[in-house]
Amino acid sequence: MSSRISALDAVVFGVDVQSGDVRGDAPSYAVVAFDGESLDRDVVSHRKLRRLIDREEPAIVATDNVYELAADKDALVRLLGSLPDETRLVQVTGDEQPEPLSRVASRHGVPYGKKPMQEAEAAARLAAANVGYEVSAFTDTTEVKVSRGRSTGSGGWSEDRYTRRIHGSVKRRAREVDSELREAGLDYEMDETEKYGGYANAVFTVEARPSNIPISARRAGDTRTEIERVRRDGIEFRPLAKRRDHVLVGIDPGTTTAVAIVGLEGRVLDVLSTRTADTAAVIEWIVERGRPVIVAADVEPMPSTVEKIRRSFSAAGWVPERDLPVDEKQHRTREEGYENDHERDALAAALHAFDAYEDTFERVGQKVPPRIETGEVIARVVAGEESVETVLADLSDDDEADDDEDEHEPRELTSEEQRIKELETRVERLDSHVDDLEATIEEKEETIAEYERELTDARREERREARERREVNRLERENERLERERDEQREANEELTEKFDRLKELWRLDHSNFADVAEAKQGLVPVKPVAKFTKNALQAADERYGLAAGDVVYLRDASGAGRSTAETLVEREPRVVLKDGGLSEVARELLFEHGIPVAPADEVPIEEVDDLAVAREGAVEAAIEGWKERADAWRKNQNESMVDQVISEHRADRGESD
Questions:
Q1: Which residues contact 148 (CB under 8 A, 6 or more apart)?
Q2: What are the pLDDT digits (tens) for 191-218?
Q3: pTM of whole model > 0.90?
């Protein structure tokens, strides 16, 4: 269960200044690469150190002071941002208030020497043993920004078209990123800025580190994709291993064993319930989460399994005066999360133990100076039953011994040195006051940060609601469009249905099997339209629906036909010719000679469907009868004219003979 770096895991770089200063002269660094077994040593410049880190990508870069690598906080942030994604910067001597490297190395049994190479080796070995604090300026959240890759100024086309093309490219790239993040199963939020023709930019806030995101920074054509980790409000120091923290442990043994870990401030850190883990596995699980000060049970006397675990940690034990009732356990754990009764009982034991010792923890904490770990003092006072003063004196003696082991014998101070010492004491008191003020400022800043987080959450919620409103509006518009299309399709369908019915009637009329039935039922006769009275138009109509003897032919434009065209129509032997426009004299005489009736189309109501048409049989017969009457009248007139002409000629002949 140990998480130490080994030869099978990764390499740790230990770094210490060899010469120079990062704030002034070009520094050189002693570098030790440690893989858990072997050591490689070298002295490199600052630039070469950066290249070495980029090339080798060590798991940890360890140092006793991060400001040996960066001149100030801004430079430190830039350094952290330039490290490979899997490389961590670790300060092995502590957080914002580091200890001497010699003291830390002595505490953990790591070889130490004052030479830079020896200090670099000590830093590497300490970091490999999970000693120190990871320095972080970034969260595990990453922003992926898709934006314009070039200005929207004049681009050779008209400016509007050029701008629309760029915004369209940004929108397409944003959709690609959205699809890739969704396929990778990552949690993210998208915030786009819509512009003419697409997006001006789109920002994806992804809950993952850059190495886990299947997208790379690039600039291609009209778009640019940038990837940047989200900055913290400041620089954070996080311990590599949390097992140094002192905790309270509540245990409920049995077929299902439950364990609860509670910090010295009363906060629940972790809960476990298992049916398979033995006592050794439970102890190992506890070791990974802290150093027990108190081991508690919810029944009296303490069960043997719990007692065994307590002795393995040399921790103090706590049991209630009588078995804790179920209602008390439920009340004490009402604000905590648990999955079953066993976890509830373990939580209740740990929290009741904290209640019993809370005053002791506060009293001890008030007496412990800032440079001494409060948890260590509490552990010795509670478990070792020592007084606070004894423990503090012992720890102070240890610190002084560490500090003085390499110093000369003390000598009597001069008046100037004594004055300096007094001033230093005053400075320490002022520093302490400054620390208090800074703590107050930090609390205020945390309050402000909380308000800012709430504001950010509110803005995020507002953006989400705006996106929902946009989506609802889009869907409403889409729904209206589909309804319009549906109505149009219905109208078109009705028209086609009506046309189809009429076509079926025409089909019945035009087929021998149904013509008699159609005529009997409807009294209709098919009419075959011809666009113009020309040979080509007659041929096209014949090819389209066939011109046969006895057909009713409708000439849409009867003008202009000559003898040969009229003969072509005569050959088809139509029943009657309905016409629009006037016939040529030649065509009229030829049709009359062959006894083909000709009538104006106005006399016969014609109902047309596309290129097909029908007319009432009665109207057709009436038109034929009208033609016959006109033909008889014309013949009669012709005969009378001929008789008059003969008489006139005869009289003229007699007059000449006389």
A1: 166, 167, 170, 200, 201, 222, 223, 224
A2: 998 887 889 899 999 998 888 888 888 8
A3: no
